[in-house]
Amino acid sequence: MMTPRWIGSAGVVVLDATRVSLTLFRIMVPVILVVKVLDLLGVVGWIASAFEPLMGLVGLPGDMGLVWATAVLTNMYGGIVLFASTAPGLGLTTAQVTVIACMILVAHSMPVEIAIARKAGVRMRFMIPFRLLSALLLGFLLHRLFCLGGFLDGPARILWEASGSTGGLGAWGLSQLRNLAAIFLIVLGLIVLMRILDASGFTTVMNRALKPLLTSMGIGGSASTVTILGMVLGISYGGGLIIRAVSTGKVPPRDVFFSMSLMGLSHSIVEDSLLMMSLGASLWGVLPARLAFTWPVIALLVTIVGRIPDGSFFRWLFVPPQAGREPGPPEKPAP
Questions:
Q1: What is the rounded distance in angstroms from the CA atom of residue 271 to the CA atom of residue 187?
Q2: Residues 201-230, mean pLDDT to the nearest whole number
């Protein structure tokens, strides 16, 4: 029999999942409606055709280009909903789902996450192309690796997917409601899992394991703790701490730049990885392969940017804290 304490804890978890889901649904529902209208007008097919050459480089059908673009402009859940509606009938392999999942993991929620990076001082002219091109490069490398080795060439096992849109708008609307309910259950499961991982000390162990990795990349110790938090919990957490550290001057500008670049490629590595695995992606692709890709990219970035003079660095890549602050009210003269 459940005690009142357990009932209270379960209620808190359900309430947290409901709040998170409602926030996501405010973004996702308009996306679903817009995409449906575009589909009825025949625009989706045109967009898929336009993406086909680019997606061909990473071994994906053009339809996946629209999925990735949706995730980039909204968030991962917006891309997931579109994926669930698009994937049936395409016969995607586990390798293909892993490729699009990794591309989404590297570049998603760009309006929000780029704004956080900009607030920390990293210029948009760098961060936007850096994340988009990194996503494409990772997708290309994984595609070539899977093709050369014949890895993950079996059909993807998707835990949930949308039912077909046949049967009119009523059947389509019902299928979308099922999708939203499935997303709520996924969010609920992730929240429960994250609480278990925190309580078991897994998060602490991961923090300790990642610290030597950051040092080997060239990221200073003053930024390592907040960078690890961002990698484990997400850009919103790590970026927020970085922004606070920038305002106090405790972290050098170049370490801030490297930290935000690293978090751009690998953040929320537990929760987001599990989410992509629910689409049928391989664990080896969404976690070890992504980290293995991040290490040389950031190490190379540290080497190159470390040789750039301060003047060029602050002009093209980073806004000094003083330049990024908004002017406050004029100070009153001393009496």
A1: 10
A2: 72
| Domain locations along the chain | 12-324
CA distance 302 to 292: 16
Supply the pLDDT for residue 325: 42
CB neighbour class for 53 (10 Å; exposed up to 12, middle 13-18, buried from 19): exposed
Closest by CA position to 97, among listed 89, 87, 108, 107: 87
Closest alpha carbon to 266 in 216, 307, 230, 222? 230
Query: What tens digit of pLDDT does each residue of 80-99 get?
Result: 888 887 887 788 999 999 99
Half-sphere exposure of 138 (CA within 13 A, CB side): 31
The rounded Cα 280 to chain-centroid distance in angstroms is 17
Give the model confidence (pLDDT) of 27-42 as tens digits: 667 767 876 787 777 7
**77's tokens:** 């859940």
Q: What percent of the chain has pLDDT over 70?
A: 81
Q: What is the pLDDT of residue 74?
A: 76
Q: Is the dihedral of CA 197, 203, 206, 208 positive or negative?
A: negative
Cβ contact 96:280 at 8 Å: no
Residue 122, strand partner residues:
318
Question: H helices of the chain, where?
Answer: 4-40, 43-56, 63-73, 76-86, 94-106, 110-120, 124-149, 168-200, 202-217, 221-233, 235-248, 253-265, 271-277, 283-284, 290-306, 310-316, 321-324
pLDDT of residue 311: 92
Q: Is 307 exposed, middle or buried (0-12, 13-18, 19+ CB in 10 A)?
A: exposed
Place of tokens 């093709």: 147
What residue has token string 């909903």? Answer: 81
Mean pLDDT value across residues 301-323: 87
Cβ burial, residue 306 (10 Å; 0-12/13-18/19+): exposed
Q: Name the β-bridge partners of 155.
A: 93
